[in-house]
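Give me structure tokens for this 415-residue protein.
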Amino acid sequence: MRITVMTAGEQIISLDVDSNETVENVKALLEVESNVPIQQQQLLYNGNEMGNSDKLSALGVKDDDLLMMMVSTNSSSGGAAPATGSDLGMNPDGSALNPAAFQQHVRGDSNLMGQLFQTDPELAQVISGSDLNKLQDVLRARHRQRSVLQRQKEEELALLYADPFDVEAQKKIEAAIRQKGIDENWEAALEHNPEGFARVIMLYVDMEVNGVPLKAFVDSGAQSTIISKSCAERCGLLRLMDQRYKGIAHGVGQSEILGRIHVAPIKIGNNFYPCSFVVLDSPNMEFLFGLDMLRKHQCTIDLKENVMTVGGGEVSVPFLQEKDIPSRFLDEERVLNEASGSGATVPSGFTEKKNNTVANPTSQQPKRQNTSEGPEFEAKIAKLVELGFSREAVIQALRLFEGNEEQAAGFLFGG
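Here you go.
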């Protein structure tokens, strides 16, 4: 059954005990919870003092009953104290005055040990062991936890009686209410949505690029398919890189675009498909299968079946399990640190910005950009941005028409 004990300091302690438990054993549990030695405890039920040898059932204590605990300065109350009572006291930091005597006393009571294994398994384990230093550490930790809880209760109580016109007090009340809401939301998530706290493994599939097997990261949030310089070299494609397509890839951080490989074969399942790549100087991502090729080859990401289909369903390949993905790909913290520390791009959501050339889709030759980008160029950008176009689109259009504002506007409106 569960009983509630209220101390003189208004601390409320809940205990799960047997109805045939003796009052002395209840006091031993309270000693651990309240840091008040057994010999200084006086337990009252319905205003009457309870003797150490009395059983709870004999005194009429029932489930959910309330007991009062008074603290006395002598050890003569509640029946005769054990001969070793002076050894069972606690230090101000919560540790036992005599840890060996405390351990022996608790070990000798099977009912008390059973209660501890239910309410505090860690403490029960160290009491059953032989490491007295660890026992003292656990007792100190419990004392600190109780002190923190007591302080929080005192602060909450003080806020209840605070001046309603005190701005600082109202701010603390608001913060306490907000934190309570957060804690309740966290507890609800743990109960109803525990998978939300698990790490999400990104989507990888097996592919071959120019005959070389790779673990391809599938990312529909990336504008283009990318390959790292080292991976392109390993696949024998670096010699095909067109350096006229240099630029900057923007995402979380940024990375230098070294060029573009216009076409190379990739093998998905048993089928071959043509693919183009942007080559990045990015050490943390070998090969990323982006939105451009996902669209081109009519790919479907089926999370229910955990597969990616290609070519409208002609090929289906499973996403890799965590055990099949190289550990360096799963080291997400390292990747993020590299991205923020060295400027390397994190592929998800990355977009291309060519800062040296703009590709001509008909002739495959780069257009010459306007090199006189000064205050006048910025003024043209501002005018076109006011019309509702994005700054990136405006800059690209102005460069495409070598700074001609009217032609750039016509191009934007026509697109």
